[in-house]
Write a structure and sequence with these properties.
The chain has 278 residues and is an alpha/beta fold. It folds into two domains: 10-218, Alpha-Beta Complex (2-enoyl-CoA Hydratase, Chain A, domain 1), CATH 3.90.226; 222-269. It has helices at 35-50, 88-106, 108-111, 127-134, 161-168, 172-181, 187-193, 203-218, 222-236, 240-254, 259-269; strands at 10-16, 19-24, 56-61, 66-68, 116-120, 123-125, 137-141, 145-147, 185-186, 198-200. The strands form two sheets. It has a six-stranded mixed beta sheet with strand order 1-2-3-5-7-10, sandwiched between helices. A four-stranded mixed beta sheet has the order 4-6-8-9. Helix 1 (35-50) packs across helix 2 (88-106), helix 4 crosses helix 5 and helix 9 (222-236) runs antiparallel to helix 10. The longest helix has 19 residues, at 88-106. The relative contact order is 0.12.
Length: 278
C-alpha cells in the first residue's frame, strides 16, 4: 500500500476496500487554502489517480463548521507580490504562471482516473465551488452554505467555477446571478438547480452516503468505471461524433480485457464479480 501519512494538510483513510477518504485538514482556519495546501492537494490526487489499490474516492472537510471557506487571504503566499521594478507585461506573465499552478492543482480531481465524490457541509465558499465542481458527484449536509464569492474580493472566479458550473447545472441565468452577486445559497436551491445530487441531514450522514456510493463503484470493473469517467469528461467538451469516436477507440482495447467475461459470468451465476487491479 502507498503511504499517505506524510501529508500535512490532508488526512487519508480507507473506510472500505479500494475506497479512499480524503479530508481537508485545517479546521482551525475553516479549511481555507494557502499555496502549500493547493500544491499538496495536487500531489495527493495525482498519486491517488494511479494507485491501483484505490478505485473510488470520497473528499470532505474536517471539523464541524466548514468544508472549505475559500482562500486564506491572511496567508502571505496566496497573492503575488508587488514589485515596481517589474514592467506590467512581465508581471502579467508571472501572475499567469501563478494562476495556472493553482488551476492545475485543483483540476487534479477532475483529471483523476478514479471517481471522486465530494461531501459538502457548513461553509463552502469560493474555492469550495471550484473544488466541488471538479468532482464527479456532490452530496451535501442540509446545513451547507454555498457561494461563488470572488466578486466580493474584486476578481472573477479563476480556478474553474466559471468554466465548469454552467456545464453542471441547467440554468445559465442562475449561474450568472450567483456569480455576479456572490450571494449565499443553500442545499435545497443547489439540489434544485442540479449542482447537488443528494442532500441529507448531517455531515456524518453525507459521508456515510458518499462512502456507500464509493464502495459500490469500487466493486465494479475499474476498466469500466475509469473508462466511463474518461469518456464522459471528454464528451462534455466535444461533439457527439467526436465522443463516439473516442468511445470506439477506448472500448476497442477495453473489450479485450477479461472484465466483460467476468462480469457476464458473475451475472449469470448470480455471484459477485471480482476484478483485477488497474
Amino acid at each position: 500500500m502507498t503511504d499517505y501519512s506524510a501529508y500535512k494538510h490532508f488526512t487519508v483513510s480507507f473506510p472500505s476496500d479500494s475506497v479512499a477518504h480524503v479530508e481537508i485538514n485545517r479546521p482551525q482556519k475553516l479549511n481555507a487554502f494557502n499555496r502549500a495546501m493547493w500544491l499538496e492537494y495536487g500531489t495527493l490526487f495525482n498519486l491517488l489517480s494511479v494507485d491501483p489499490n484505490i478505485r473510488a474516492i470520497v473528499l470532505s472537510g474536517s471539523g464541524p463548521r466548514a468544508f472549505c471557506s475559500g482562500l486564506d487571504l491572511m496567508s502571505s503566499d496566496v497573492l503575488t507580490k508587488e514589485d515596481p521594478t517589474v514592467d506590467p507585461a512581465r508581471k502579467a506573465a508571472e501572475v499567469r504562471r501563478f494562476i495556472k499552478e493553482f488551476q492545475d492543482s485543483i483540476s487534479t480531481v477532475e483529471s483523476c482516473e478514479k471517481p471522486v465524490i465530494c461531501v459538502l457541509h457548513g461553509i463552502a465558499y469560493g474555492l469550495a465551488i471550484d473544488i466541488s465542481s471538479c468532482a464527479d458527484i456532490r452530496i451535501a449536509a442540509k446545513d451547507v452554505k454555498l457561494a461563488v464569492k470572488e466578486v466580493d474580493i474584486g476578481i472573477a472566479a479563476d480556478i474553474g467555477t466559471l468554466s465548469r458550473l454552467p456545464k453542471i447545472v441547467g440554468s445559465l441565468g442562475w449561474v450568472k446571478e450567483v456569480a455576479y452577486t456572490a450571494r449565499v445559497f443553500g442545499a435545497e436551491e443547489a439540489l434544485r438547480e442540479g449542482f447537488l445530487q443528494k442532500v441529507v441531514e448531517t455531515k456524518e450522514a453525507a459521508i456515510e452516503e458518499a462512502t456507500k456510493l464509493a464502495k459500490l463503484m469500487a466493486e465494479k470493473s475499474p476498466l469500466g468505471v475509469q473508462g466511463t469517467k474518461a469518456i464522459i469528461n471528454y464528451s462534455i467538451d466535444h461533439s457527439t461524433a467526436e465522443g463516439l469516436e473516442f468511445t470506439k477507440v477506448w472500448n476497442a482495447a477495453a473489450v479485450q480485457a477479461p472484465d466483460p467475461k467476468i462480469a457476464i459470468e458473475a451475472t449469470l451465476m448470480k455471484k459477485k464479480a471480482v476484478f483485477a487491479k488497474l
